[in-house]
Write a structure and sequence with these properties.
alpha/beta, 6-stranded mixed sheet
Length: 290
């Protein structure tokens, strides 16, 4: 059967956050688990008693916030995560603090609070996880990884952007704190080098066909350039949000709301503004020390 996302119906909305049940050489696995607020829906939609592995793309709360809930209810689950992200899965205090600075009072309603994952359940990813090929995919987050299944499916997470299928617009969600444009360009190249036959997106759906995947990556790359230039050239947050919103609405019409829910536009402004500000500070320090 074709791979399809399990819709977690985030806040009652369809096609915002999905996860995937996949087969691995070491047993059934879940690719990402969604936020703590969706754990009840996850349990209803997936037989977690059968799951042996949780493959995390990265530790942002919309992707990994329910990991501790999953393991508490099903202690057989092994949680695979990048080395940088592992300490924050074991002790999510700093992750919660960072998320609360971004979301404020909305955090609890949107994503809830993650539970710690016992250290003995955490496995740091090297080049495989549960027998599945994995590789670093920084850009959206420094600790982001992708997984490549034997059938050619790339479990992409947010590395290739947000696209609410069957929509065509690709939105390179860029929240703070560690957006890296140069690393993201290398990730696009790395994804294409593997020539995946499909992309499994958490937000939301599966892009099928080698040519369609290449087209998707090109759109993500081009629109990331557009967004980065807008912020570099001095757009304010309100101007950036209005321009991005107009782009999406022109492409997707009534389907635009799912994009706005999955990837709030103001967050991408904040991430890109921080990237350019930090880069300017680094360039100034390098020039001063030359």
């Amino acid at each position: 059967m074709p791979l399809e996302p399990v819709d977690l119906l985030h806040l009652g909305n369809e096609r915002v956050i999905g996860v995937y049940v996949v087969d691995t050489p070491e047993g059934p696995a879940l690719f990402d688990c969604g936020p703590a607020t969706c754990f009840e829906r996850l349990e209803a939609a997936v037989d977690l008693a059968e799951i042996r592995h949780l493959l995390l793309s990265h530790i942002h709360l919309d992707h990994a916030g329910a990991a501790g809930h999953v393991v508490r209810a099903h202690p057989q689950v092994r949680v695979h995560v990048a080395e940088i992200g592992a300490p924050h899965v074991i002790d999510p205090a700093r992750l919660i603090g960072s998320a609360r600075r971004l979301y404020g009072d909305e955090l609890d309603r949107l994503y809830g609070e993650p539970l710690p994952v016992p250290q003995e359940n955490v496995e740091v990813i090297w080049d495989t996880a549960a027998g599945v090929k994995s590789f670093p995919a920084p850009g959206h987050a420094s600790h982001h990884v992708c997984y490549l299944l034997d059938d050619g499916t790339l479990l992409a997470g947010d590395a290739t952007g947000v696209r609410i299928l069957p929509g065509r617009h690709v939105l390179p969600h860029a929240p703070p704190p560690d957006i890296d444009l140069e690393a993201w360009e290398r990730t696009f190249d790395e994804v294409l080098r593997h020539q995946p036959e499909r992309l499994a997106l958490i937000h939301f759906g599966v892009v099928s066909g080698i040519e369609q995947v290449a087209e998707h990556i090109e759109r993500a790359r081009l629109y990331l350039d557009v967004w980065a230039k807008r912020v570099y050239d001095g757009m304010t947050e309100d101007e950036f949000v209005a321009a991005a919103r107009a782009d999406i609405e022109a492409s997707e019409g009534e389907g635009s709301d799912a994009y706005f829910r999955a990837a709030p536009l103001a967050q991408s402004y904040l991430g890109l503004e921080r990237y350019w500000r930090k880069k300017g500070e680094q360039d100034a320090e390098a020039a001063a020390s030359a």
